[in-house]
Amino acid sequence: xxxxxxxxxxxxxxxxxxxxxxxxxxxxxxxxxxxxxxxxxxxxxxxxxxxxxxxxxxxxxxxxxxxxxxxxxxxxxxxxxxxxxxxxxxxxxxxxxxxxxxxxxxxxxxxxxxxxxxxxxxxxxxxxxxxxxxxxxxxxxxxxxxxxxxxxxxxxxxxxxxxxxxxxxxxxxxxxxxxxxxxxxxxxxxxxxxxxxxxxxxxxxxxxxxxxxxxxxxxxxxxxxxxxxxxxxxxxxxxxxxxxxxxxxxxxxxxxxxxxxxxxxxxxxxxxxxxxxxxxxxxxxxxxxxxxxxxxxxxxxxxxxxxxxxxxxxxxxxxxxxxxxxxxxxxxxxxxxxxxxxxxxxxxxxxxxxxxxxxxxxxxxxxxxxxxxxxxxxxxxxxxxxxxxxxxxxxxxxxxxxxxxxxxxxxxxxxxxxxxxxxxxxxxxxxxxxxxxxxxxxxxxxxxxxxxxxxxxxxxxxxxxxxxxxx
Length: 471
Fold this sequence. Notes:
Blueprint: E1 11-15, H1 19-29, E2 34-38, H2 41-50, E3 55-59, E4 61-62, E5 65-66, H3 67-75, E6 82-88, H4 92-100, E7 105-109, H5 113-124, E8 128-129, E9 132-133, H6 136-147, H7 162-174, E10 181-184, H8 191-200, E11 209-213, H9 219-227, H10 244-247, E12 252-256, H11 263-275, E13 277-278, E14 287-288, E15 292-297, H12 301-306, H13 312-318, E16 321-324, H14 335-349, E17 356-357, H15 359-367, H16 373-387, E18 392-393, H17 400-422, H18 431-445, H19 450-457, H20 461-470
Parallel strand pairs: 1-2, 1-3, 3-6, 6-7, 10-15, 10-16, 11-12, 12-15, 17-18
Antiparallel strand pairs: 4-5, 8-9, 13-14
Helix pairs in contact: 2-3, 11-13, 14-16, 15-17, 17-18, 18-19, 19-20
């Protein structure tokens, strides 16, 4: 038993039915963490019920035991640990399902011990207060008690990278409050999903989230859309109209592309935020509203305010809490998680058998720059599901803008890594050696499929055959 009065380290529980794996992980981690080990579910649950465990690292397959059952039982405890799953590559889909059921992340076998330790540190980072681990799961439990709702607004914000973990934590922290929120980020990063999650976890009525795309309406139409109008207020106003703020009374209004609104509408919005009242177009009668305001933009609103292109006083009102959505290129570890979720979604939508990504296709997705972010990835996966008649999606099923532009980039990365490992002496650097390494790696990544290897290398299959023969 660990003496928690003397303990300064986080406590880790390692669960695996293979003794070499358990002992290897314990030896690798015990310098920085206090470690328990268990060989099955019964032993693991006994430890979890009797000891304060901060993080559980468990295999998904343990003989007759199913790691998913352990996950469910562990997360049902009054003080659940952070759960990280271990899995073989072939069961990554199962690991993604585990994440949907509450696991924080997963690692694939064979394990890279340095990566495992980095992942554990990332899982625990930001959860230490007064030298005690404060887990996000405990915050969620408190939120459930307060609002009577399960905080499932986060389920569509897929990602376990550090940037997305920070976004999740921020949403959980601010959702129950009335604070105005500004969401900034590039197009396609998921700003609308953040707004939906904030509302879902706020305790406000589920049907009271009203969304307005400010860029889609002219100035006059936007003002009428937001605040409503009286009959005869302007040409064509044949009857009274209730605006979006009144519709959202008691709930949340999400104003997307807030940087596009004109000065006159900015003044009226400022009044709503400061006085909690609106006036319909054509009326001077103030109407009290209780509305949580969440806004989003793909521009830098602070710079716009500094340059006089946006009212500074309104910016300060909107910027009570700011959430910055990371571009997909800055959270590449989330790409395959997102891709697998989209594979399931589009298999159902298109009445297709569920598919998986080939190793080469997965690597291409991870090195592509994704200027359109998650929205572009979603489109690419839908393209792959529609174009593939096999059980897997290979590079030939991905959109051409990915395969044409990124084959060289992937080739360069493979070459760079292999050069560091295989060419120790300056005299070894010659064209044939580099070419041989590159071809070998391409064949490995394509499982010796020469057509896919040639596509990866950006050459024809005939040229590849000739080079193999020559080398």
